[in-house]
Amino acid sequence: MVGEDRLPGDPVPEAQPAGGSPGPQPDAPPVLEAVGVGKRFGAVVALDAVDLRLRPGQVHALVGENGAGKSTLALMLAGALRPDSGQILLDGAGGVLPNRGAAIAAGIGLVPQALSLIGELTLVENHLLSLAASGMRRRSRADARRQVAHAAALAEVELPIDRRTRDLAFAQRQLGEVVLALAQGARVLLLDEPTAAAGPVEADHLLGRVRALADAGTSVVLVTHRLDEVARVADEVTVLRAGHRVHHGRAGALGPHQLAELMVGERAADEAMPGARTGNERARQGGSALDTRARAPVRLRAQGLSAAANGGPGLHDVSLAVAGGEVLGVAGVAGSGQRVLAETLVGLCRPARGTVTVDGADVTGAPAAAVTRGVAYVPDDRADGVVETHSLADNAVVLRAGAPELTRAGLRLRRPAEAFARAVFARFGVHPPEPDLPAAALSGGNRQKLMVGRELASRLAVVVAHGPTQGLDVAAAAVLRRELRAAADAGAAVVLISTDLDEVLSLADRVMVLVGGRLVDEVPGADIDLARLGRAMAGLA
Length: 541
Known about the structure:
The chain is an alpha/beta fold. It is about 35% helix and about 25% strand. The longest helix is centred in the middle third of the chain and has 17 residues, at about 280-295.
């Protein structure tokens, strides 16, 4: 059984990581296949008679807007979800994937969008648990550690495999899921948005390894919203729209804009992909607006912040000031202290030293005071911002639970709350827009839109957005960026923390670079330069 006794490449050479023949084999029979699969969740049709064929040594890109059915299809291929109609075939045979454990034992690795690691366990302990759950042969801790270390070396990633995964940065947890899939002996990898939280350096590295694994025989389904990745690493591409397959063909035959048109329609694609303006261009075209923002009062001020982190770097003497109407971009490679900075700015983390003030009021370590002062927070992990077991309406109004227009005698009024929720759904494109639906029924991207919409629905003093567009399709990401810009134009101080340099450059009036928990460089809007930012992010500032 694949993966039962050995790790891919252990002890066979790295050129044969999964036991398959090297390179894409366009004429070979599919190793994994979805034939006419359909799936409903209540009244919502997630997939309708969709086909997908994955051949040995192939990278098959799967793209579509949020809620198109991509993650549902990936979960079916992984044995984690059963189709209502159609069938999943493995090596030409159907009915062999009754559950996720059987799929793991058969060599099908999954890196889900909602990561599956148990936070209190290390990567090694998570690997031991997955082996037991899938019925594979038990391993000693030493053997399991050797497998995980070998898989990390095969993927060429450096990870603290003996640290609790809850203490790892989100991007590190994503890479950890890839490593564990390889450690389980995967000959098929199903990667659901693996680069969503990665910066350009980390994404390039991971995609390079994906391509190398495929060239050595591993079959890969790559679910992605980064359309440039399709041409870079994929052999074939399938486009889903509203649960239907609308295109399948050679990956290099269509460019990013054509794929976007298939995903979201021609008009939406034109609006979403006009070409991002850099800070330099904004400074040349709207310098007077930047000058006005520079003279506006400071709304968010952090002074001398030092804070410990459970894993990775903490903060070391970080100070910043953001004026109303300004977007401050904070760039850095993944794991540079972004999460602890975001949580400290919004009061969730109390620093060992230093203060945070909003409009002159101290909110250091006081999240309730921060919310009262008009601070909105978009965390990098949507699991931290959406309660899956509660309804969409509950999630939409949670920050306004005591608002007089939504309550009477301490009880929430159903109709006003639903009306507010529906307004959020319409403004941010949350689908399906059903107030009573549990949040767990939404796709990952729609949960992200729900969380961001809830945070930005009111007039705000400060917005701290950490990786706000990760996992969103091109149209939804464009809407969110416009909303962040609109919040700044309405007078909010916006802090955009992101590993995506294109996102930072498209929005920021000023950029600071975070390395190892320290701010090492600051670049005004008129001087924003990729080369300078790259040097600073590499620690060369």
